[in-house]
Write a structure and sequence with these properties.
Radius of gyration: 17 Å
Strand content: under 5%
Shape: globular
Number of helices: 7
Distance between the termini: 43 Å
Structural class: mainly alpha
Helix content: over 70%
Largest sheet: none
Length: about 180
């Protein structure tokens, strides 16, 4: 019976992807980035309920919903238009190269800038944060996302790519929440 409930939820989600793809991207990505922040604060940082930074969770949710979800969704559409929609290995590798060499560096810069700005930090603090953490975050990104994106572009149809990435991103969101906030709270 529990299995049937999961199947109903999955069917509903897939229908939402077909009928309202942008809204679905916003809600699902916002939810998963929020979950990553909750895991970061409660499991990794061991803040407890009293020490939980609710403003940070709202900030991370907002960045996930209004930047990450729409931006990543649009990026996948652009990649399919520019490189092609074939699931061939050669097409998939071109997409991975563009994703990791063009999208990731820009995405991380914008993400860290948004987070820094929403924290109320100065431009000098942003520059310091980027100098201190950008290369390690980008390197970690490449280590996780290169193999994930090979699978994503080679085996996953376009309409399911954001969901696949969001599931893997739960781990990444936890790490990114920690790395982008650990010395600022």
């Amino acid at each position: 019976n529990e299995y049937k409930s999961y199947l109903r939820m999955l069917r509903w989600y897939l229908k939402q992807l077909d009928t309202k793809p942008l809204r679905t991207a916003i809600i699902s990505t916002g939810f998963l980035v929020t979950t990553g922040d909750l895991i970061s604060q409660q499991v990794i940082e061991k803040r407890g309920i009293q020490g939980h930074d609710v403003v940070r969770t709202v900030r991370m949710c907002s960045i996930g919903a209004f930047f990450v979800g729409p931006f990543a969704r649009k990026w996948y559409l652009v990649l399919d238009k520019v490189v092609g929609s074939s699931l061939k290995v050669s097409v998939s590798l071109k997409k991975v190269a563009l994703d990791q060499l063009c999208f990731s560096p820009v995405f991380l810069t914008v993400f860290l800038t948004l987070n820094n700005t929403l924290q109320g930090n100065s431009f000098d603090e942003l520059k310091s944060k980027l100098r201190k953490d950008y290369i390690s975050i980008l390197t970690s990104s490449w280590m996780l996302w290169t193999p994930v994106q090979i699978i994503n572009f080679w085996l996953i149809p376009l309409k399911h790519r954001l969901l696949f990435v969001n599931i893997v991103a739960l781990i990444w969101n936890t790490y990114l929440s920690y790395k982008s906030n650990y010395n600022s709270t």
